[in-house]
Amino acid sequence: MKKWFLMILLTYGLLGVTMAQNVEASAKVQEEQIAVGKPFTLDLTLKAPYGSVVEWNGFVTDTLSEQVDILKRGDLVRTADADSNIIVQQQLTLMTFDTGYIQIPGLQLSTSPAHLSILTDPIQLYSTTIAVDTIQAYKPLMPPIEQPVSMKEVFPWILGALLLVLVALAIWYFLKHRKPKVDENGEPIKGPVVPPYTKAIGDLESLKQQKLWQAGKLKEYYSGLTDIAREYIEGQFGVNAVEMTTDEILEQVRELQFDEQLFGKLKGTMELADLVKFAKYAASSLESDNAMSDMTEFVNGSYAHYQAMKAKEEEEARQHA
Fold first, then answer.
1. Which of 95, 197, 265, 286 would staple 303 via disulfide (CB 3.0–4.6 Å)?
2. Structure pTM?
């Protein structure tokens, strides 16, 4: 029994020696002197007897060593020679950023069934820097090369523009065709309306807080003052004051039968504003301060007059009812 076991081991060993003698692995470069940062190729070849299974090194990392990087892995090419030996070849594109002597280590390639591992011979290379010719004149930099725009690049922009147009059309259609809210009588419901008196008092206070005349902006100050007066008179008393001149406004307001002193405050402020806006009159600080006070008193006084007249009309209506 032992003799048979020894014979099997001997046969297997002789088979391994025979296989090892017939397996060849090589690694070659075109030149032993390379330039730093410039790609070069390494050609790997493995020859094994027919029937062998080649376990090729996949080179899954990006480096062969600390000095050599793998840029590209060529396709694995399998052929056979005239003696039916298996030939496996692959080309690696490599690069180094070191200078001086560098070494490509022996690369391990394996075959079975004998499970033989073959190492290629290490390769010694010399890496040099790129020579610069300092005698020749410097050449100008090349401008960027224009590339034609492809449909693949333009399509997302076209799609985005179409989507924006569709969204805009959808918003326009919604705003145009939406039904307004109506009350029980079918009348459109409007938002809250600020009474003319309340708005005028608020606008006067806001204008006062801006301190325009104190900053030398007299024209802006008096324009704001008269605009507030025009809007208040039109909203409170139905006089088309926004489209009228100062004289026309005063003529219409006089018919409302305000107190002469109250009417005089409006008249004086409006006429002073016209001098500032159109005649470039430089109103004094006292005049500008009084203009705000007079306009505020006019708004308060005219509104009180309006309420009194309205109460009187309602009382007369009740008496005649």
1. 197
2. 0.44
